[in-house]
Specification:
This is ISH3 family transposase. By secondary structure, the protein is an alpha+beta fold. It has one domain (about 5-375). The chain is built from 13 helices and 9 strands. Strands 1, 2, 3, 4, 5, 6, 7, 8 and 9 form a 9-stranded mixed β-sheet that branches. Helix 2 crosses helix 12 (about 320-345), helix 2 crosses helix 13 (about 360-375) and helix 6 runs parallel beside helix 12 (about 320-345). The chain is globular, with a radius of gyration of 24 Å.
Length: about 400
Amino acid sequence: MCVMEFPRLKRILTDPDEYISNSQLKSLSMELLELIPMERIEGSDLDSEDIMGVVLRAAVGTTSVNGVTTDTEDTPNREPVMDWLHTLEKEPMLDAVNDILALVAMTVLDRGGSRTICLDFMDNPFHGHPDDEDEFRRMEARDGTTKCHRYCTAFVIAQGKPLTLAVEPVDGEDSKADAVERVLARVETYPFETDQILMDRDAFVGELIGVLRETAPPVFPVITRKDSLRKKLSKAASHMTEETICEGKEHEQTYPLAVNITYQNGDRGKSGVKATGYAAYGLEDRTPAQVATTYNKRSRIEKSYEKFREARALTTTPSTTIRLFYVGVGFLLEQLWLVLQWAVLARPRRGGRALRKTFAFGDAFLHGIERVLDDELSWKEEYQTNGEGLPAGYEHGLG
């Protein structure tokens, strides 16, 4: 983790004023983004602050760089902005994003003890024709495409919210095990121990299970393709047992299996018995219901993705580095919001802080930054008309 300083953020977190303004939210966001290394273009009269201001406005408005530069008076054209963005180098940029995520997260995380880490794979739909066909992955059809860029993410649930610990791209030929290994290597730089890992069914691969177990005991739902597994899940009562994956192969794993039987009484329009199997490493002494309760903690990260997508700039660029950068910006903004919400806006009280519902991510945080940037970038408020309107005879539809 590299050495970074956040003087504005530190002051507000440790000695907040009675109110925090939209201008301060914008300044704090820029403080984070300006720590991402970007080479200066020789001879350009722009600097990284000019570029990051355009990117920030695109993110908070879920629009594109082209949309921002077209609809503002005091920003450069799209071409010089994109020229600057193309100077981003993938690895230094990704390292900086992850370092910033870590340092901001640690402002509200205890340094001692141990933590449960949630891992996930996130797919962002991709439209267009990339320079390299190996850069994207395939997914189930969504948003009119089966192409996506995939990212592996790590979260920890703290203060009732999922804090993002690390983000890694899953490139064309990457295996899921490779991506998880890189993410866990970043998590290991945090000053706390990982005592458990929660993951979805993507973990049900022998090689990946081995990678997870090297860090901490993993818990995840199983995929019911095997006859012996289906037989164990067909029993009428919850029970603990064990099962083997990749039997007789290189990555063979025998895992503790928790079979949890529940009854769906009209939940989501479903009824009857539901059997769910979990690989329950480290939870062999628990009941299947307790295993299910432990695993369900990770459901909160879906809310994190919903928020992240509210702060993701749109683009059609084939550059995977720029796309990854926009993903990083979205996670950084959400992380900043979570920390500010808990540290300076939630009311201290016995038993934990009471979060303010009024400081919503989209309506308050993002929109507040948007309003400041609209003023600073001189967002256009009028557009030239043709001075003529409808051709003669076309106005009949108006009555």
